[in-house]
UniProtKB/TrEMBL annotation:
Residues 35-85 form the HTH cro/C1-type domain. Pfam families: HTH_31 (PF13560), MLTR_LBD (PF17765). GO terms for molecular function: DNA binding. It comes from Streptomyces tabacisoli. This is Helix-turn-helix transcriptional regulator. The lineage of its organism: Bacteria, Bacillati, Actinomycetota, Actinomycetes, Kitasatosporales. It comes from the Bacteria. InterPro entries: Cro/C1-type_HTH (IPR001387), Lambda_DNA-bd_dom_sf (IPR010982), MLTR_LBD (IPR041413).
Amino acid sequence: MKHDPQRDDLGAFLKARRTELTLTAVGLPDDGSQRRVKGLRREEVAMLAAISTDYYTRLEQGRIPASPSVLASLARTLRLNDDQRAYMYGLAARDDYRPPRPPSHPTVQPQLQRMLDDLALAPAFVIGPRTEIVAWNVMGAALITDFGEIPEEHRYFVRLLVTDPTMRTLYADWEEVTRLAIAQMRMHNANSPDDAQLTRLVDELSDRDAQFRQWWTAHHVATRDTGTKHLRHPVVGDLYLDWNAVTWAADPNLQMIIWSAEPGSPSHDALRLLATWASDPTHAATASPRDVGP
């Protein structure tokens, strides 16, 4: 049978989810004895999902496809949330259909760049499924870093979070931000597990950082949609900003991340100050006061 990377990812995902469950969480008796495996055993998942242990074992090993009814049963058994369900179904897509893989070097249409540039007060950048940063505005560079100074082959948001020490200072909740970015990257690449560009990025960061390796292999997933982040900016101080991801209809692989603050709030005033600072020609060469290493 032809090797299928998506089946391998599906098996790893199922295993990761069952290791996080407890007997009491799924309604099974727990006598308190020491268990050799973390979480649920394969036979326990199979029993709860009303399938044979052999069938479930072959699913985890990536040897067989899963039927819609089995997926539905496993989703209930493993207590999957909406993002996890969507990810699982994406991995289990029919063998004779795969959505087109995102291009290696996404390009931004001029009208999208104009939209970014017209956001005078709102920091914004455009991100691809691998977290590649493909466009940004002046405020985006002033808030995060001067993306133009980073070589294109290194210009990934996840890579920036993992390899640039100043990101751990900029984001007050750096660990939460980084774990979420990794979960989003896995979610948005469910249909391209054998993508060479993604593999190179994951391999590099896994070699460089043990935390990244741990978080990536945990197989957590999340949709890139909206949220709030606390930043400690070196120029304007503390910022509490809302962010929203807007999918670009002309290329659904690209999303525009737009940051904003409640009008009249200290963070809104700080954004105005940052906009003034970023527009000063004397700061043009240092739109973000940090250096990003390779």
